[in-house]
């Protein structure tokens, strides 16, 4: 062998020697999964990245910022990361704990004296840590109608106040039920302890030290920042933009629970920081706080799917992270869901591997399938566990769902009349949601929420029942309407599988006046 050839061989061997033993991304397999998911689910845009041992080993994007407009998604495109914001909120709090400005077991009332829960004892006993682990005793998504649909006029002060009127359905700390409102409170606690608004804190404590240069939160100018993916919904065989941004993106009440936008590049920096901090940010967070964020804080149910697909034996919530075992491998993960935007961050710390999925369309199944294929690529390496395999399992789950869990047929509907609803017309008030008008609209009746303008629609009759058909098609969960013997108004989701954030069931309207 020629000396130069020998040197090339030695260089190759040495390069292999310094690679981590668990680094084994097969780009061809990942590319194939990317292509199949993008095509099967007709996504408007998709961004996927993988980190191994602190290095980005895969980054790929496809699709457009807005379908049909030609501007391509790239690794700098901003997506809504939705509830993946929660881990950034808990990291901000952890930085305050490291700085001695806050304790996890501080009573919430130490920082927010006005904080109350329906049960006064729970309000007094709730600690900062309780805000982060979904153990409040409230239904999943309770009070989320103060956050979504956007835009609305609810403030963070409204949310802190409104929590005092939301009735629990189980005892405090007795079980897991996902909530968003407590993260709004957590953001207010951070602001009080850190001496700056939440949006300023998360930029200062997370984005800047970790070099997440494109991430945005609070108010910002879309035309100045540029390259921003817009959410889409599926209408027939088309992707249609929904709730598109204006030139100025306003700060929103829900920022601490789900308001951050980041690029794929930034989310990969975020992921790498947790798996293998570089020398510049090794002391960004103490080992004690890193351990606290990933420690099981609240047991979570192990679903039938987790047992069947992953052989899971434990599931828990940390501070802003979901923790579980998959094929005997520790997994740290979270997802994010907002209208027309889906995200996922998944890490297998023992293997030094993490990956990010960002979608700007209706991508729930796409996210589930692609994330599962990527996980199995590292835990099993079984090529039969493909996109088609998991897509088929989801189809089987849906087919096996009992009729009681499916949306009823409401196609035979007509406008309810003034004559039918005359005795019930008026202004109604719920103690946490505020007022809604049930009043005449031409020959029909309209229900209109005063502080949530997208909750505005015509009352329809379906057989013996009444429902509200919201004018805005992006409000994709119709509501049943019922009247109580005492003159109140109650609501419930027509589709039992609708997003739990449409928490109509928590409303308790009482009539307070005549129509204007």
Tags for this entry?
alpha+beta, 516 residues, 8-stranded antiparallel beta barrel, 30% helix, Beta-lactamase
Describe this structure in words.
The chain is of the alpha+beta class and 516 residues long. Among the domains are: 27-85 and 211-400, Beta-lactamase; 414-513. It is 30% helix and 23% strand. The strands form five sheets. It has an eight-stranded antiparallel β-sheet, sandwiched between helices. An eight-stranded antiparallel beta barrel has the order 16-17-18-19-20-21-22-23. The model is unreliable at 1-21 (pLDDT under 50).
Summarize the structure.
With 516 residues, the protein is an alpha+beta fold. Helices cover 30% and strands 23% of the residues.
Basic shape:
globular
Q: Enumerate how many helices there are, as a single number.
A: 16
Looking at CATH, the homologous superfamily of the domain at 27-85 and 211-400 is DD-peptidase/beta-lactamase superfamily
Widest sheet: strand ordering: 2-1-14-13-12-11-10-9
**pLDDT < 50 stretches:** 1-21
Integer-rounded radius of gyration: 24 Å
Strand content is: 15-25%
Number of strands: 23
CATH topology of the domain at 27-85 and 211-400: Beta-lactamase
* Biggest sheet record: 8 strands, antiparallel
Class per helix and strand makeup = alpha+beta
Oligomer: single chain
Q: N- to C-terminal separation?
A: 94 Å
Q: If you average the pLDDT, what whole number results?
A: 94
Reported CATH architecture of the domain at 27-85 and 211-400: 3-Layer(aba) Sandwich
What is the level 1 CATH name of the domain at 27-85 and 211-400? Answer: Alpha Beta
In percent, how helical is the residue content?
Answer: 25-40%
